Amino acid sequence: MTPKSRKAKALERLHSRILECTRCPLHLTRTQAVPGTGSADAEIVFVGEAPGRQEDVQGTPFVGGAGKVFDGLLASIGLSRTDVYITNTVKSRPFVGPPPGRNRTPAREEIAACAPWLAEEIQIIQPRLVVTLGQIALDQFLPHRKISEIHGKPQSTGGITILPLYHPAMSRYGSEWIAILRADFRKISKVMIPESRT
Ligand code: URA
From the alpha carbon of 169, which atom of ligand 1 is closest? Predict the structure, then answer.
């Protein structure tokens, strides 16, 4: 058995704390909190919005409909879940209506309560690239930038390189959106492999 890396141990401790989090009222209605998943030594961290119903049940990010699209996009650039780290801005499922209810966008207070968890995940992993999926995730790093203006274009902030991408759920709006997502995912390889080596 290979010894666990220092990062893997730190991440495991962080995940245990996230699973017990009561920082916002979402803890009262969730099945379980959903920490990130994947490699502690990943060079790329993906950040989505919040767990949906499937994620709430299974305890893993991106395992519902949007997750299938995400897996396909990852595969299209030769990556799999074990190569990267995948997490969400908010770790507990926001929903409306009587359970199981409908997924909803997380509220400002829920996002603020969860922000330190995301910061700690990134602090431990120290990735070369953070890929934000959708406007909510982008807002955590570049609060005044619009995804429609900067998707697919690498940005620098606080010593981190961010690649803002649309959320995979946009694929539900048709083939044009799928083409945009696929083209933007190819930018990940470009950022990771400098021009001289492509
Ligand atoms: N599933 C997630 O885990 N995050 C999202 O943003 C959407 C679906």
Answer: 7
